[in-house]
Amino acid sequence: PPSAALVFLMAGPASNVATVGAVHRTFGGRVLAAYLGVVAAGSLGLGLAFDAILPTAAVVAHVHEHTGPVASVAAVVLLLLFVRYATLDLRTWWRSRTPVAPSALELGVEGMTCGGCVRRVDAAVRAVDGVQDVAVSLEEATVRVTGAASLETVREAVRAAGFRPSLSG
Description:
It is built from 6 helices and 4 strands; from the N terminus they run H-H-H-H-E-H-E-E-H-E. The protein is α+β, with helices and mostly antiparallel strands.
């Protein structure tokens, strides 16, 4: 009946989550309860009044409607497409949420003799794009890099700092 549509059109937008949240945050729980009560009572009352003023015509015939095979096949195809694209979207979303483990590489550094050398190598390698973490060891004469930086860019940074990179870590 048209009155049911009127009730839903009045109460729906007035009681959505955003509106309820805004009223609760601004005015509090008591006003929210009164607001929802007025919306419910008002929409039901106006729906009943609408039915009383404009009565709907009685359905005089009982009609059975059957759709043809084209409509049924089209509905199944649309449903399958919806499921396929929803699955693809969910799969993409799930993959984006799983963290990718950053790669780690270790490089030997020849020529480091003191803490100042360690700081220079550390600063030079940290300046490379894609580097997440750097650990320089004076005792082992190595630099361990975590992140997405390539081996060649890290080697160039070590060279630019004045040291000789080597693959034997």
